[in-house]
Amino acid sequence: MKVLVAGFGSIGRRHMNNLRAHGVNEIILYRTHHSTLPAEEIGDAITETDLEAALAHQPQAVVIANPTALHLDVAIPSARAGCAILMEKPVSHTMEGIPDLREAVRTGSAGFLTGFQFRFHPGLIQLKEWLKNDAIGEVTGIRSVWGEYLPGWHPWENYRESYSARADLGGGVVNTLCHPLDYLRWMFGDVQELFAVTSNHGLQLPVEDSADILLRFKSGPTANVHLDYLLRPGQHSLHVTGTEGSIDWDNASGIARKFDARIVAWEESPLPAGFERNVLFMAETAHFLRVARREEAPICTLEDGIAALELTLAVHRSSREGVLVKF
């Protein structure tokens, strides 16, 4: 299969390496040369600086890994060209252009996968299975925390110039760390209402560096989600309280643990041998290639990606206007 990778930041490089690891030898790279990564890492990939020229190589699939605000500039022409698309989250930073993307994917694309790689995490998959089986009774409360110090993410670049810190590129902690908004909806269903407060007090960026979000799901439970660019050491965890116990997941260990209050006992879900962070991306890449070959349906669709986008936009609206947003 011939695959076009749009963007050569850290995630674009990861996708390129993972495609090669899965046996994809024909890679076209579409880039603008704004990346701070060493060019020698590109290897033998064909490089184009014009999207039309890149699509002229007739790739069967496209990985969209450029800054959020530029996603649709690549996605819509790629879908119209008949390519399967793996788009890094979030789909965009605005709803502008989303109807055009929907239509292009509906009429042209060979498949669309939104890149929320935590859907491939074995700990979260086990957690979702426990919930499906009512292992802790009725869910009464959810708490997700993800804090990570932005200046330490990419030591090779000035964090204030990175897309994560720039409003014009669709940055900010809500867009950049929106994974919990997807995996909570994946587990608990659609959101009924949302209230949020954001701040840029910590790093004095032109985008928010922290957010506190309260969600009520149509299925009943409420969730507290905290996101920030500030926490040291970093933390990414999920706690679910039920009428008959509780479940914890910590990204640092990757392990999910369930407490059953009926028998007063813990159960732990071990990770596969050799598990590390890139396993999630490798599983995502393997799934995407099967989607592109029409062997599987995407487990995280364009509509899932749009639903997460609607939540991020609601967070910003709620904080800006001080309102409860109802869906």
Task: Please describe what this structure looks like.
This protein has 327 residues and is of the alpha/beta class. The chain folds into two domains: 2-116, 3-Layer(aba) Sandwich (Rossmann fold), CATH 3.40.50; 118-272 and 299-326, Dihydrodipicolinate Reductase, domain 2, CATH 3.30.360. 30% of the residues lie in helices and 26% in strands. It has nine helices and 15 strands. The chain has helices at 10-21, 51-55, 71-80, 98-107, 122-132, 173-176, 179-188, 278-292, 302-321; strands at 2-6, 26-30, 46-48, 61-64, 84-88, 112-115, 139-147, 191-199, 210-217, 222-228, 235-242, 245-250, 256-260, 265-269, 325-326. The strands form two sheets. Strands 14-13-12-11-7-10-9-8-15 form a nine-stranded mixed β-sheet. Strands 3-2-1-4-5-6 form a six-stranded parallel β-sheet, with helices on both faces. β13 (256-260) and β14 (265-269) form a beta hairpin. α1 crosses α8 (278-292) and α3 (71-80) packs parallel to α4 (98-107). It is globular.
